[in-house]
Amino acid sequence: MIGFYLHHHGSGHRIRGTLIARRLGVPVVGFGTGEAPQGWPGMWVPLAADDADVRPERADVAAGGALHWAPLHHPGLLERHAAMAAALQRLRPRLVLVDVSVEAAVLCRLLGIPVAVMLLPGERDDAPHRLAHGIAELLLAARPVEADAPRGPRPWDSKTIHVGAISRFAGRAPAADRAVDRRRVLVLGGTGGGGPAPREIEAAAEATPDWEWLQRGGTGGFVGPERLWSELSGADAVIVSAGENAVADVAAARRPAVVIPVPRPFDEQLATARALARLDLAETPDSWPEPAQWPGLLAAALRRGGDGWDRWEGDGVDGAAAALLSVYRRHGGEA
């Protein structure tokens, strides 16, 4: 058995974890706040919330800088870790993939269970990240190795595998061409917050009368994956945040893109946007542009096209599953 800890902020961690779990071909157990994600292929252990009624200035949530989130005397945190420990004792998984939590990784390793950790973009050189990366037997990066900015060697480089983008739409055929008079741009939002306000999208649409604007996610409402793929792969251009899953879906669709980072801890999305700029894969303004900038941005995205996205992809979910199974077998797991 392989375990998965999947963070609940946004939907990306849960979608990515489910894709990998379904590809493994071995029993899995998942841990996370609330109910199991859609399509989860095995057992699921729902965890109590650990962020309600927390006053950070009194709770020493970072344990003096050694951790990221461990508020003192919090009943949800205690219940959460107790539930994980009890399930791990009962089920004895050979490996747990953590996407992503320093505290969950440390808990598993303290219980004698090997851990793999998703290596997210951004500045991850603080003490808690160094701890989690140091104890992990495997680090998986869902991006190409070229996406990481040049830097000096790190102790975990030898156990890091860059598998490229992981998308639920990988390998799908694009939608049929639309018979329309105007080009269409799709604004693709997520559940993590921080996207454009409706008035900002309206102003951008008014500045680009030759374009039809369609919004999905965020304040634009959500649709099922089949319809989303049809609209994504059929769009002439896509506007999206720099979250790893969002970028992976655009890469799978090979669409011209404007990728706009939203504020996230450790400059996660900013790092991804800068990588896309270095690789010349998308237009990457630092924030939502002024209306007058949109005609030029969309024109530039069209000129670039979407063929370059194959540089962002790789073995994806297959590579992630293969790397996990290698560690799993090393610890006595049977596939």
What is the CATH C-level name of the largest domain? Alpha Beta
Strand percentage: 15-25%
CATH superfamily caption of the largest domain: Glycogen Phosphorylase B
Count of all domains? 2
Secondary-structure class: alpha/beta
Question: What do you see in this structure?
Answer:
The chain is α/β, with parallel strands linked by helices and 335 residues long. The protein has 2 domains: 2-164 and 315-330, 3-Layer(aba) Sandwich (Rossmann fold); 183-311, Rossmann fold. 35% of the residues lie in helices and 16% in strands. The protein has 11 helices and 11 strands. The strands form 2 sheets. It has a 7-stranded parallel beta sheet with strand order 3-2-1-4-5-6-7, with helices on both faces. Strands 9-8-10-11 form a 4-stranded parallel beta sheet, sandwiched between helices. Helix 1 packs across helix 11, helix 4 crosses helix 5 (127-135) and helix 7 crosses helix 8 (244-253).
Key features?
single chain, 335 residues, alpha/beta, Rossmann fold, 2 domains, seven-stranded parallel sheet, four-stranded parallel sheet, 11 helices, 11 strands, globular
SSE map:
Blueprint: E1 2-6, H1 12-24, E2 28-33, E3 43-47, H2 56-59, H3 75-91, E4 95-99, H4 102-110, E5 115-118, H5 127-135, E6 138-141, E7 160-162, E8 183-188, H6 198-206, E9 211-216, H7 225-234, E10 237-241, H8 244-253, E11 257-260, H9 268-278, H10 294-304, H11 316-330
Parallel strand pairs: 1-2, 1-4, 2-3, 4-5, 5-6, 6-7, 8-9, 8-10, 10-11
Helix pairs in contact: 1-11, 4-5, 7-8
